[in-house]
Amino acid sequence: MLRISALSFAATLAVVGIAFAATPPPSVVVKLDPQNGSKIAGNATITHVAMEPPVVDVTIVLDGVFIPENEYPAGVYRGTCAKMGTTPEYRLKPVIGGRSNTRVKPTAMKPGPYLVAVFNTAGTHTMSCGALPMVHHVK
Prior knowledge:
The longest helix has 11 residues, at 9-19. The chain has one helix at 9-19, and strands at 2-6, 28-34, 41-50, 55-63, 71-78, 90-96, 99-104, 114-119, 126-131, 134-138. β2 and β3 form a beta hairpin. It contains 1 helix and 10 strands. The relative contact order is 0.30. By secondary structure, the chain is mainly beta. It has a single domain (2-138), classed as Sandwich (Immunoglobulin-like), CATH 2.60.40. It has an 8-stranded antiparallel beta sheet with strand order 6-5-8-9-2-3-4-7, with no helix packed on it. Strands 1-10 form a two-stranded antiparallel sheet.
């Protein structure tokens, strides 16, 4: 039976993994758009490393004017870029020099939507944000 559910790391692995058990599924690229007057955009790439247990690498690459040696907090949140949850479902390594790479072992998550967000150095305002796409869930 098919139904629509929000893409979470766990759903990405479980859903796509069922269909492609012998072959790792392709990477998912999430466009990160500037937020709150920021001019910083970029991409977050979610790459499947292992299916059992599920493991993904989340790589963030930002473009724009930022101070390369500063640390910009990042995470995966429930909600939308306009209204996200207050605590991350997954904390990602801070973006330093425009890049971050975090290995995540996803667990079952609540229904979405979900997003990837990068914050200012104080962690008070989002600089870049992108919604995780929807997928079909096979049960």
